[in-house]
Amino acid sequence: MSTLINYFVEANLGLLLFAVIYWLFLRNENQFSFNRGFLLAGILFSLLFPLLHFNSPSRAKMIPSISEVMPSYWLPEVSVRPNDQGSLSPAMTTVPVWPILEWVYTIVALGFTVLFVIRLIKIGKLFLASRKYRWNTCLVAESEERQPTFSFFNFIFIGQANQLTPDEKQEVMVHEWIHVRKLHSFDIILINLLAIGFWFNPVVRMYRKTLVQLHEFETDARSVENHDADSYCRLLAKVALESTGIFLVNHFNHSLTLKRITMMQTMKKKIQLWKLIVLSATVPLLFLAVACQEQVISDLQDVSKNSAAAGLLPLEVKKQLDVLQKNNPSHEYIVIQMNEEGKKTLDKLQFENAQTGTLYPSMTLINTDKNSDGGGFTYVILEKGSQTSRIADATGRFDKAYTMVDDMPEYVGGIDSLMAFIQKNMKYPGDARKKGIEGRVFVSFVVTKEGDVVDPAIAKGVAAEIDKEALSVVSSFPKWIPGRQHGEAVDVKFVLPINFKINN
Predict the structure, then answer these.
(1) CB 403 within 8 A of CB 71
(2) 253 with 112, same domain?
(3) In 348-472, at which residue ranges do the beta strands (DSSP E only) sit?
(4) Which of 251, 271, 291 delimits the end of a domain?
């Protein structure tokens, strides 16, 4: 689940970025084909960019990982109240937020999908009820009913055809034929599918509105190249006053008629050079960041080859490598000697970023003896893979862990067993009870891929004695059933709220 949420976050950030750039530099430009191309490139880049996982050579993150924008999973709250027996009264009050949001998203997306299909059916019915004939490469469907005039892929629909003179009808068909040649209907389908998947993002509506306007501006500009602009504007106004609209299509008579007429009377000018420089630098810079990943991989492979050359690996390193390969024959390992070159290579990796898919999920350090053939160097054996796992620092803390995974860790026996364990082991501190101290303590901890409970910490405390009691009980938790992401066991972070309350 976290992978999907991470994709949504990054894709929508990309859409927002390109929308801001367009609004700052291009919204007042009348190079309509260029503007359209920029928006389409922004949409496609935003959809594809999150699928590329990379490690920046620096510690800075261009796009935040999901662990930085989504809070840790909260367990049900436990209420602790002293009574005559000194036992606990657990109470679960947590609302399952993420499953509810998932259902809401799915229901709304399905609703928009149904609406999209209904609109397609409406266009099909209109085609079947019209008089049809071929013109150029298009199939024209005429109707004398009060229907809109529009194009949809290779189909041209003309409503109230009896109200148009032959010359006017010809001019309308030329206009719609330009829509067909420019493949504007593909843009419309793309943006409507995007609106279904990202219905919660208001920026998508801006993309849809802007693309529709650019389609009309681009087509109008081509239509009046060899025709009288005034007569064309009069035809535009005439058809617009007598029509209604249909979604998913390119309208000859769209509601932005006045803006189109104004735009046709505006002299076209080229985009300023400095704007082109800024725009042309934006996407390559992002691709440069992606290319850093490939450079790191190349560096690691080169260092590994140099270290693993025949006769260069110390005996203890070879033995450890043989053990790892024997236990995991399907895994690939890279050996790096920690000389200056090796240290520079490792500095490029971000092992702590467990949310973005680190390329090397485990690391084994081996210090060779000074008298061995290795000369007393430190060697690193990296397991090559696509799934992240925990990397502990010198203090043994796990600074990064998943917050949501496909299968969340479970206490053996379920929540009821967890409550029973807490009830048996936690006591309301006597000093705090006498002083009337009460409040809610939040304890964070990590369930490792082995099922161990590690790194307990007070995320928000009340008083020293209460915090100490809460931390002591969490630290004594037995093993859990590990969480899994894409079928592999991973580390997952939890927060347990404990409410110490004297009075009922």
Answers:
(1) yes
(2) yes
(3) 362-367, 378-384, 410-411, 439-447, 453-460
(4) 271
Name the nearest CA neighbour of 479 among 404, 396, 397, 418: 418
Torsion of CA 154, 158, 257, 239, to 10 degrees: 160
- The stretches of 49-165 forming alpha helices (DSSP H) are 66-69, 97-128
| Beta strand extents in 390-438 (DSSP E only) | 410-411
State the residue range of the domain holding 465: 73-79+400-500
CATH number for the domain spanning 439: value is 3.30.2420
In 10 A of CB 465, how many CB atoms?
Answer: 17
Q: Which of 360, 428, 404 is nearest to 67 (CA)?
A: 404
Contact 23, 16 (CB under 8 A): no
Cβ–Cβ under 8 Å, residues 43 and 194: yes
Please indicate, yes or no, if residue 283 is contained in any of the structural domains: no
336, 342 Cβ separation under 8 angstroms: yes
Cβ-proximal residues to 96 (8 Å cutoff; 6+ apart), any chain: none
Total domains present in the chain? 2
- Residue listed under structure tokens 């002293």: 82
Q: What phi, psi does 238 have (nearest 5°)?
A: -60, -50
What does the block give as tokens for 473?
């009980």
**Neighbouring residues of 480: CB distance < 8 A, sequence distance ≥ 6:** 409, 410, 411, 412, 447, 451, 453
- Nearest in space to 346 (alpha carbons), one of 396, 287, 303: 303
Q: Strand locations in 247-307, DSSP E?
A: 250-251
The answer to whether residue 67 sits within a structural domain is: no
Please identify, among 241, 271, 301, the residue that sits at the C-terminal boundary of a domain.
271
Which helix (H) or strand (E) is 367 found in, with range?
Answer: strand 362-367
DSSP 8-state assignment for residue 407: B
Q: Are 476 and 456 in contact (CB under 8 A)?
A: no
Residue 428 sits at φ, ψ, to 5 deg, of: -75, 120
Angle at 128 between CA 126 and CA 129, to 5 degrees: 65
Q: How far apart are alpha carbons 196 and 194 in whole angstroms?
A: 5
On whether residue 406 sits in a domain, the answer given is yes
Domain annotation covers residue 153:
yes
- For 499, what's the count of Cα atoms within 13 Å in the CB-facing half-sphere? 14
Chunked mean pLDDT (size 10), the chain, 504 residues: 71 88 87 91 87 52 46 70 52 58 92 95 93 92 88 92 86 89 94 95 93 87 70 67 58 53 60 74 60 45 48 74 76 74 57 40 64 62 52 43 80 87 87 87 90 88 89 92 87 87 73
Q: What is the residue type of 306?
A: N
- Max Cα distance, the chain (Å): 100
456 secondary structure, DSSP code: E
